[in-house]
Design brief:
The structure is a homodimer. By secondary structure, chain A is α+β, with helices and mostly antiparallel strands. Chain A is built from 5 helices and 10 strands, in the order E-H-E-E-H-E-E-E-H-E-E-E-H-H-E. Chain A folds into 2 domains: 94 residues, Alpha-Beta Plaits; 139 residues, Alpha-Beta Plaits, CATH 3.30.70.660. In chain A, strands 1, 2, 3, 4, 5, 6, 7, 8, 9 and 10 form a 10-stranded mixed sheet that branches. In chain A, a hairpin with an 8-residue loop joins strand 2 and strand 3. In chain A, helix 3 crosses helix 4. The longest helix of chain A is centred in the N-terminal third of the chain and has 13 residues. Chain A is globular and about 60 Å long. The interface between A and B is medium-sized, with 22 and 22 residues.
Chain lengths: 248, 248
């Protein structure tokens, strides 16, 4: 074995068959699969630290993980060797060495999430794992008016699952957009960080606005309430994908 | 029970977990699931006849099935009731009554297939069930030159699995295009009918041309050979989707 080095992975996954990112006593997670395959590959116990701890059923095109190792294998070769061992719904997109004090939770970053809503009379089987289905008409213009209230720095406590333990619930959303991609409506949020279930609660609230059950201007009241009960329900996980994770 | 009537279904499915369309002794198929759920719903034995007998792993946004029934349930309500019973990777998009002599194999139709190729350094987990992955660069212009030779009426015997029992191997391709959709390359073919494995053999041949192992002009020789061995290998099934089935 050689000197200790720290390796950063870019990890893409289909979250359908996992109990989320975070290692937990029951059920296989993305992190537990990475730990298992890395430990076997490198011949030493390995624990990854994740950038974004996504929920069960949520997908990622490029989440981040780091771990320390004494392997002599060059960091940039680990991606290829690890992909040989991982199940096919997890694929390392890149591996590289970073300084020993580099920690994804302490560096500035910008994450972009997309939540996809499939609008149709019936669900489409080939999109069922990656979209939320609704046959009720959505007023896209109302949803656009509503999402605009979220841009900028706000206390997003109302859009955070109550049991989340965080120092502050203030976050900045740099861009909040609703795009149309054929029959799919895409809610795209870019920010410096997202609270537990934040994107899914935002989408659950936007859906109520799109269905006409709330008006866009309520977004301001919801933010000011600083109370989870003021916002709408948490949207189903499978529509959500972490599409970009930029290190600043 | 009422008078016999014939009902036509538009069926969308994710073929990942099925042994294709056609009922067979071992393994669950799209047709066997439709038969099982329709028989339970209508309280009489039901057998569907399919429009396009797709292979294991191949998907469809709108295949066609017909069956006869004495149910008093209005034909257009069957879609809703049947979707309650079907597994979530099969969804009826429409149901309607057709004349008793209507048969999908005897009417003129136009089918469009799309085969998606994901180009990247590593596979993308969320697209693994719906694309063929390659990290070898593809020369798209060469593939476009090659596919143009297929438009029009030709004997496609070279692009047909040898054990297929058909009266004629002559088919007409109305449109053959290669489109780019981000990192995905889409081979789109519209024709009056496709032989067994025809689209997958065409794509297998186009891939060899894209990788520089064959030249586009060989398409003419392959067509003229009328021999399966002259064409390239059969591309993997998961990249293929029947996207449109138009009745003329």
């Amino acid at each position: 074995m050689g000197e200790v080095k720290r390796v950063r992975l870019i990890v893409a996954y289909d979250g359908t068959n996992y109990h989320g990112w975070q290692v937990q006593p029951n059920g296989i997670t993305i992190a537990s699969e990475l730990n298992r395959c890395l430990s076997a590959l490198l011949g030493e116990p390995v624990w990854v630290i994740g950038g974004s701890r996504t929920d069960a059923g949520v997908h990622a095109l490029g989440n981040i993980a780091v771990f320390d190792t004494r392997t002599r294998m060059p960091a940039e070769k680990i991606s290829y060797a690890l992909n040989q061992r991982l199940p096919e719904d997890i694929r390392i997109q890149k591996s590289e060495e970073v300084p020993l004090d580099w920690n994804p939770r302490r560096v500035k970053s910008q994450k972009t999430y997309e939540y996809r809503i499939y609008r149709g009379e019936f669900p489409l089987p080939t999109r069922r794992l990656y979209t939320y289905f609704t046959y009720h008409a959505l007023d896209v213009e109302m949803m656009r008016k509503a999402i605009a209230f979220l841009e900028g720095e706000h206390d997003f406590r109302s859009f955070c699952q109550v049991n989340a333990q965080v120092e502050t619930t203030v976050r900045t959303i740099y861009e909040a957009r609703i795009l149309e991609d054929g029959p799919e409506l895409v809610v795209r949020l870019t920010g410096n960080g997202f609270l537990y279930n934040m994107v899914r609660i935002i989408v659950g609230t936007l859906l109520e606005i799109g269905w006409g059950r709330r008006v866009p201007e309520e977004m301001t009241d919801i933010l000011e309430a600083r109370d989870r009960k003021a916002a709408g329900p948490t949207a189903q996980p499978q529509g959500l994908t972490l599409i970009r994770y930029e290190l600043l």
